[in-house]
Design a protein that fits this description.
Bound molecules: S-adenosylmethionine
CATH architecture of the largest domain: 3-Layer(aba) Sandwich
Radius of gyration: 20 Å
Strand content: 15-25%
Number of domains: 2
CATH superfamily of the largest domain: Vaccinia Virus protein VP39
Order of helices and strands: HHHHEEHEHEHEEHEHEE
Distance between the termini: 41 Å
Oligomer: single chain
Strand order of the largest sheet: 5-4-3-6-7-9-8
Mean pLDDT: 89
Largest sheet: 7 strands, mixed
Helix content: 25-40%
Length: about 210
């Protein structure tokens, strides 16, 4: 979009001609999609399949009603979270709670974390993550289980969560996260985090990094 606006300013006449031609093509080609660069290029750059939305996630978990749909986080937010967690990657375990098809794990692998773990309660999404991680040659562990049942490793970790569930499940999961961890959370549940004793130390839109106490 920014690129298109830049062209419009630099070459107004030819850009207007292109816009008019595209408007005429709407009956055959449909409305233009202003999707983000992230959506369009991540999958082709990494030769994986993470895009799209799974509205009804198949799972045998009793927490299904508390879980959110699958939709991958933007590359920008994932990288921002990792780059602002202030935890040295070499001694930090990256854990994606509700890892979906593994996009955040693939990106995390570029930063040299000591281990990369994904927790996903949908078998079909977890299998898609495993395929994507194999294609990307990422050494990691995908556990097919409910986040509530997961026991976090002691020591430094970056717990990444892109709006996986409602506060009923969120509160139970937070009880198991050790105070040595940092949480990168993106979604509407910021109040749950502060209620449970986590403090934001960096913010970007709906995303923030949390540490215990303060
Ligand atoms: C919005 S998607 C985020 C996917 C991934 N983290 C990413 O950024 O690409 C939320 C994911 O959380 C999973 N999820 C929801 N509730 C869960 C639970 N209780 N235990 C494990 N996974 C869960 C969903 O199946 C879905 O894949």
């Amino acid at each position: 979009m920014a690129e298109m606006l830049g062209q419009l300013i630099l070459h107004p006449l030819s850009s207007m001609r292109l816009v008019l031609r595209r408007i005429k093509e709407i009956p055959q080609k449909g409305l233009p999609r202003f999707s983000s660069r992230d959506e369009e290029t991540f999958d082709s750059r990494y030769d994986v399949e993470t895009s799209g939305m799974v509205r009804i996630v198949s799972t045998a978990s009793p927490n299904a009603a508390h879980g959110n749909r699958y939709e991958a986080c933007s590359e920008e937010i994932i990288r921002w979270s990792i780059e602002h967690c202030a935890s040295p990657a070499a001694s930090t375990v990256f854990i994606d709670i509700g890892c979906g098809k593994g996009k955040a794990m693939i990106i995390a692998a570029e930063y040299g974390f000591s281990r990369i773990i994904g927790i996903e309660y949908s078998e079909s999404l977890a299998k898609a993550a495993i395929r994507n991680l194999e294609t990307s040659r990422v050494e990691s562990q995908v556990l097919i289980e409910d986040a509530v049942a997961y026991r976090f490793p002691p020591g430094q970790s970056l717990v990444f969560m892109y709006n996986p569930f409602d506060q009923h499940v969120f509160r139970q999961v937070l009880r198991h996260i050790p105070s040595s961890a940092r949480i990168a959370y993106c979604g509407p549940g910021q109040v749950t985090l502060t209620d449970c004793g986590w403090t934001p130390v960096a913010k970007k839109g709906a995303a923030a990094i949390y540490v215990r106490g303060f």
